[in-house]
Amino acid sequence: MDALGLLRIRVRRGINLAVRDTASSDPYVAITCGSQKVRTRVEKNNCNPVWNEDLTIYIKDLNTPIVLSVYDKDTFTGDDSMGTAQIDIKPYMDCLKMGLEGLPDGTKVGRVEPSRDNCLSDESYVVWNKGKISQDMNLRLRNVECGEVEVQIEWINLPGSKHLHK
Length: 166
Ligand SMILES: [Ca+2]
Prior knowledge:
There is one protein chain. Helix content is 5%, strand content 47%. It has 166 residues and is mainly beta. It has one domain: Sandwich (Immunoglobulin-like). The strands form 2 sheets. It has a 6-stranded antiparallel beta sheet, covered by helices on one side. Strand 8 (124-129) and strand 9 form a beta hairpin. This is C2 domain-containing protein. One of its GO terms (cellular component) is nucleus. Residues 1-105 form the C2 domain.
C-alpha cells in the first residue's frame, strides 16, 4: 500500500435531516473513497443527531472523490437515502503543503467560500491549533429536501510515507 497518508474525518452532527420514517429517521453517515467504505453508528429516531465519531480513510490519490452519504437505517427494508455531499480536501491540502510551523493557536491559515463546486453551506476555515491543521466544514446535503452535516478533517502523516511538504 503506497498511501500518501490518512484523513481523519470527525463526523460531528446532522442538522435538520430528512424524515424517512413516520416522523423521524434513524440516521447514520457512510463515507466512501475509492473502494473504502466507513460508517458511523446509527442514531435512532433523531433528525438532529450528534455522532462525534472519528472515521479514518487512506488517501492514495488526492483526486479520488470522498463522498459522504446519510442513510436512514431500516430493519426490514433497504436503508433509505437522506442525501450526499462531496468532501473537497484540495484547499486544505494546499494549506498543508505550505509547511507552516509555530503559529499561535487558532490562527486561520485558509478560508474557503461556499460555491457551486463544493458542498459548503457556510464559509469554512483551515485552522492551526497546537501544531495541527484542521478544517471544519458545514456540508449541505444534495439529492434530498433538507439537511446538513458538520464534519472536521485532519491529515495524519504515515510513518515512512512520502512526505507532503516539499
Ligand atoms: Ca428507519
